[in-house]
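REVIEWER CHECKLIST
Item 1: Sequence provided? yes
Item 2: Single chain? yes
Item 3: Sequence as submitted:
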Amino acid sequence: MLPYNPRVAKLIEMHPTDPQPRRVAMVVRTIQSGGLIAYPTDSSYAFGCQIGDRKAIERIRRIRRTDKKHNFTLVCGDLSEISLYARVDNWAYRLIKSLTPGPYTFILPATREVPKMLQNPKRRTIGLRVPEHPLVHAMLDALQEPIMSSTLTLPGDEMPLTDPLEIEDRIGNQIEVIIDCGPAGLEPTSVLDLSNGRIEVLRTGRGDVTQFT
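Item 4: Structure as written out by the authors:
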């Protein structure tokens, strides 16, 4: 059991296709001040915080009960950001371009722009993705950097949480903001490891991977 925390998450309603700028700005300020949010993507709900925020990252690990081997993902606005945070060969770039925006996470060798705490400790890789969701792109435009992210799956659950009210009920005292655009998807992203010069499917999720298996 996690210790009780008197924090109470603020439930912020957002329009699913035309998010209100003032509310987006409120969420971004929360991230920039060290807050932890729950937000919908084009696959499922996810945790989100600022890149390199050690305290927020440790909070995600505690809530999810993961160890330091857990892979985090940088949610990016476009391909140019991916090339800033990862080393991408031409073949990998063409593949990523064909699948984004969309419900895929790509594992790639990290550049020095990625804090070591976010990299896989042995392989020095990082997960990156470009989702197709108006709210996420609005937050990224306002934040002007990627969001550090992790699928919102709680200990003992097989699937990510999808209902903002259930998220509020279960972890509302452990995070700052829950964004409500209505229920999100039930599946996490499909994960493609491109770090070894080939395509390896690490997780089958919402994104179609039949062509790679």
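Item 5: Key structural point noted by reviewer: Residues 10-212 form a domain with the DHBP synthase fold (CATH 3.90.870.10).
Item 6: Recommendation: ____
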